[in-house]
Design brief:
eight-stranded mixed sheet, 2 domains, single chain, 19 strands, D-Amino Acid Oxidase, Chain A, domain 2, six-stranded mixed sheet, FAD/NAD(P)-binding domain, alpha/beta, 9 helices
Length: 372
């Protein structure tokens, strides 16, 4: 099995490290800060392959596979690491506050039911039977019982510890300054020296595009900021994820309710704004009026790795030893574990047929670099 260096210690990088170490690879994971503390730490932990999908496409199929694997993945990691990852399989209730929103939900209901996805159409009163604290403005909803949430921080920690226990080397607080390409071989330059490996996995989240460009490789990943707030100071008024037209509410096992999230193309400015936080509070109050009296326990922002077509980038970069595992945008927590499996299988066997063509780096055209 190959010697592999993974650039990036978020959920995707940690999953790749775990699966590769389990397959017998010599793994080094390099993270510029503390592993799991960037976009992974900022996520809400939703596992929403159906609520996030817009068509019966490759993204939906990969999300279905990921969701089906999740209970087994979590059980295995909990057994290996000895702590709870808090998988909560209570479903997601998407709601509409007006006729236009209800029609959008009806269209989603029609095409997803046609695929056999379990969904339940609810009128406003039925929505309030499911979640009694919902606003009286809710006129319809779509309940998706197969969706869930997970404690993303504990999941990343479990993957990291399981990877370490299988021999992976974790190098934190070591920024990769650039990637260098010579004779088809990529190496990573850090302040502590160069990192060479048979395979370099680029899983650096929102920084992936910049790092790829430093080697002359075109992987157009850019940061998309998301702001969130944690509401508390009261008994949680909801028991499952509630998703409205302007945001979502995620009840956590610790009694807080996470409200999110903004979508802002503002570069690498990872900070909250007064206007963003006001928007989140208003959206939460519109869904569950009781949350108007909740206290903001803390707020934060993260940078999602977005791509031009909204799809992840997974697979080998032609003519190099570089493998991309990035661009998961809003679905990193859902797709992280399955991406780790795909990457480990591809590196171990050279067989990348598991990766849909829609996700391949090849969709961006030939590599835009000559040897540096």
């Amino acid at each position: 099995m190959s010697d592999v260096a993974i650039i990036g210690g978020g959920i995707v990088g940690c999953a790749c490290a775990y699966e590769l170490a389990k397959a017998g690879a010599q793994v080094t994971l390099v993270e510029y800060g503390k592993a799991g503390m960037q976009a992974t730490n900022a996520a809400a932990g939703m596992l929403a392959p159906f609520s996030e999908s817009h068509a019966p496409d490759a993204m939906l199929r990969l999300g279905q596979r990921a969701m089906a694997d999740y209970p087994g993945d979590v059980a295995a990691l909990e057994a290996e690491c000895g702590f709870a990852i808090e998988l909560q399989q209570y479903g997601i209730l998407r709601v509409a506050l007006d006729d236009g929103g209800a029609e959008t939900l009806r269209r989603r209901h029609a095409w997803q039911r046609g695929l056999g996805i379990p969904l339940e159409w609810l009128d406003g009163d039925a929505c309030r039977e499911v979640e009694p604290r919902l606003s009286g403005r809710v006129i319809a909803g779509l309940y998706s019982p197969a969706e869930a949430s997970v404690n993303n921080q504990m999941l990343a920690l479990a993957l990291l510890r399981a990877a370490e226990s299988r021999g992976a080397r974790i190098v934190e607080r070591t920024p990769v300054r650039r990637l260098r390409l010579r004779a088809g071989r990529v190496s990573a330059e850090t302040g502590a020296g160069a990192i060479d490996a048979d395979v370099i996995v680029l899983a650096a989240g929102a920084r992936s595009g910049q790092l790829a460009a430093s080697a002359g490789v075109g992987l157009p990943v850019r940061p998309i900021r998301g702001q969130m707030i944690a509401l508390g100071g009261m008994r949680p008024p909801i028991s499952r994820i509630v998703w409205g037209p302007r945001g979502y509410l995620v009840p956590r096992a610790n009694g807080l309710v996470f409200a999110g999230a903004t979508v802002e193309d503002v570069g690498f400015r990872r900070r909250t704004t007064a206007s963003g936080l006001r928007t989140l509070r208003a959206a939460a109050r519109a869904l569950v009026p009781q949350l108007g009296a909740a206290q903001v326990q803390f707020d934060w922002a993260g940078l999602r790795p977005g791509t031009a077509d909204g799809l992840p980038i997974i697979g080998p970069v032609a003519g190099t030893n570089l493998v991309a595992a990035t661009g998961h945008y809003r679905n990193g927590i859902l797709l992280g574990p399955v991406t780790g499996k795909i990457v480990a299988h591809g590196i171990a066997t050279g067989d990348w047929r598991d990766v849909p063509a829609e996700f391949s780096p090849r969709r961006f055209g030939p590599r835009a670099a000559a040897d540096a």
